Amino acid sequence: MRISSLEIPGVLLIEPAVHGDARGFFLESYRRDIFRNAGVNDKFVQDNHSHSGKGVLRGLHYQLKHPQAKLVRAVRGAIFDVAVDVRRGSPTFGQWVGEQLSEENKRMLYVPAGFAHGFCTLAETTDVLYKCSDYHHPQDERGILWSDPDLAIEWPEMQFLLSERDRVHPVLKNAQDLPDYR
Predict the structure, then answer these.
(1) Distance, CA of 109 to chain centre
(2) 62 is catalytic
(3) Catalytic one of 61, 62, 110, 169
(4) Model confidence over 9-22: pLDDT tens digits?
(5) pTM of the entire predicted model
(6) pLDDT per position as a tens digit, 44-87
(7) Cα–Cα distance between 103 and 25 in angstroms, integer?
(8) Do residues 134 and 68 touch, judged by C-beta distance below 8 A?
(9) Which of 110, 117, 130, 169 is catalytic?
(10) 30 carries an active-site annotation
């Protein structure tokens, strides 16, 4: 397993060792000891599965009082996955990173707690699995507008299908509730 730091400290790109033959493949998607050696000490408590058609955009989401670190991978199809630092006081506040994750490249993205997370689907059928370091608390959900011009996220050029909630999130500079940098 190869783990690389991205432009924002703490956000990691994970490339598992894939062992394949005529039967298919095998990979380890998570090993606590390897992740700990890379500085990831989260205890994952919840796994989520998202199924979408092409052009679905989900995000940018975060939880305020129960921030979640996430380990994200596309097991079918492909996504453009984005992490935005929304921690007040952080030296990288308002910066984002994005990576393409797919069933072909088998890469994963580790998104630390305190980051807004979102993705758009690039394939006709996409299944995303992700581990979370805290439980989902619906009353704690917050979001940032996916198209915030100050963030200038370079989303793929396509028509997006969004939930009503994701259409009306505030831009980052108008967000009332943001986590603090620790």
Answers:
(1) 6
(2) no
(3) 61
(4) 999 999 999 999 99
(5) 0.95
(6) 999 999 999 999 999 999 999 999 999 999 999 999 999 999 99
(7) 12
(8) yes
(9) 130
(10) no
